[in-house]
Write a structure and sequence with these properties.
By secondary structure, the protein is an alpha/beta fold. The radius of gyration is 21 Å and the shape is globular. The chain contains 16 helices and 13 strands. It has 2 domains: about 180 residues, Rossmann fold (3-Layer(aba) Sandwich); about 180 residues, Rossmann fold, CATH 3.40.50.2000. The strands form 2 sheets. Strands 3-2-1-4-5-6-7 form a 7-stranded parallel β-sheet, with helices on both faces. The protein has a 6-stranded parallel β-sheet with strand order 10-9-8-11-12-13, with helices on both faces. α9 links the parallel β8 and β9.
């Protein structure tokens, strides 16, 4: 097969979909040396994302997430002689006759339209067309699969659920090793802290977390800081303002985006726990990364998160401030519980792997090509 994979998003926007695309490509390059892969990269990303004999880079000039994207995208991909095109960022060339596989990560733009920008709503609003154009659909969780069927009427037989996984770099390391790496990397981290990792945006529900953290300090005299790792997103100023309103400016630290995976692994390993209060996740990679490092996790019981963490995390309703306060205090106050959650988290994380995801994705490609013949 001659497989085209649209990876322009890797240059266009850092985040979950970019990481998904890169990790999937790396795993495919490891397991598949027979099929030809054509990586459709952004014109400004001149280096190939994957260096392997059966992978080659092709420049696409179609503007990413742009109202005029579709016409040039269809023209540019038509000339490549592809047997299949995979769009990891939802939307394939809608005017093309080449069999398409799309990955749908979540339908948050439909469930929570107030959490997305107008540009994002316009772009992902094409998902309905994409779902019916695609030969096969990859959903990253059963939660997303159910949403596809319920909200968009996607044919059940076209959907394959293929889980993501934590990068193998995320694993337990010694605290001294973690501290030493962060010092060398110039990351200021205290000896004890709570950790959040994700974009600073409304969907991540940081308002509940900040209010619960304030209660943790006032009711249980907790004095260690809360570190927030992630780039500012849409309406992030509301979060910064809330920190001021709650008088938490000395205790809540915004570290910005940490692109160095080794530094992020060090933060996971040093954290007392990861807190992830999101209203909705299509998969929830951050809790899985933390669990792979042996970090106890408290996360919301919404979307796919219960499906991903299983019995290895404490689940709490997104808007239950008191529940979040109690859940965090339980881990802080009970060393045995913390140790048990660490063991359970590591065991749970090992049930996911990118090699398995790549093999299931390759089988999805075969199904898509077969259905078109």
């Amino acid at each position: 097969m001659r497989i085209g994979i649209d990876v322009r998003v890797v240059y266009h926007r850092q985040g979950g979909i970019s990481w998904y695309a890169m990790r999937l490509l790396q795993a495919l390059a490891t397991i598949d040396h027979e099929n030809e892969y054509v990586l459709l990269q952004h014109r400004r990303q001149t280096e190939p994302i994957v260096d392997a004999p059966n992978f080659r880079r092709v420049t696409l000039y179609a503007p990413v997430h742009h109202p005029w994207e579709q016409y040039p995208l269809s023209l540019e991909t038509r000339r490549l002689g592809l047997d299949l095109i995979h769009s990891p960022d939802f939307i394939p060339p809608l005017r093309s006759t080449v069999p398409a596989v799309i990955t749908v990560h979540d339908l948050g733009f439909l469930l929570y339209p107030n959490f997305v920008t107008a540009d994002s709503a316009r772009y992902y609003g094409q998902t309905d067309l994409a779902v019916h154009r695609a030969s096969r659909i990859i959903a990253v969780s059963h939660s997303t699969r159910s949403d596809l069927i319920r909200l968009l009427g996607a044919p059940e037989g076209k959907i394959n659920v293929i889980y993501e996984a934590a990068d193998p770099i995320y694993q337990p390391i010694g605290r001294e090793e973690a501290r030493a790496y962060l010092r060398a990397a110039g990351v200021d981290a205290p000896n004890e802290f709570l950790l959040f990792v994700g974009t600073i945006e409304p969907r991540k529900n940081l308002g509940t977390l900040l209010r619960a953290y304030q209660q943790l300090r006032s009711q249980y005299a907790y004095r260690h800081p809360l570190l927030l790792v992630g780039a500012p997103g849409w309406l992030s100023n509301d979060i910064y303002n809330l920190v001021n309103e709650l008088d938490l400016t000395e205790s809540v630290r915004f570290l910005g985006s940490v692109a160095d995976n080794t530094a992020l692994r060090s933060l996971y390993n040093l954290a007392t726990m990861l807190v992830h209060p999101a209203y909705y996740e299509g998969f929830g990679l951050t809790p899985l990364e933390a669990m792979a490092c042996g970090t106890p996790v408290v996360c919301s019981n919404a979307g796919s998160l219960p499906e991903v963490v299983g019995e290895a995390a404490i689940l709490t309703a997104p808007d239950d401030v008191e529940g979040w306060t109690v859940a965090m205090h339980r881990i802080i106050d009970d060393d045995q519980l913390s140790d048990e959650m660490s063991v359970r988290g590591i065991a749970r994380a090992t049930t996911f792997s990118w090699e398995k995801a790549a093999r299931e994705t390759l089988e999805t490609y075969r199904q898509a090509v077969a259905s078109a013949t």
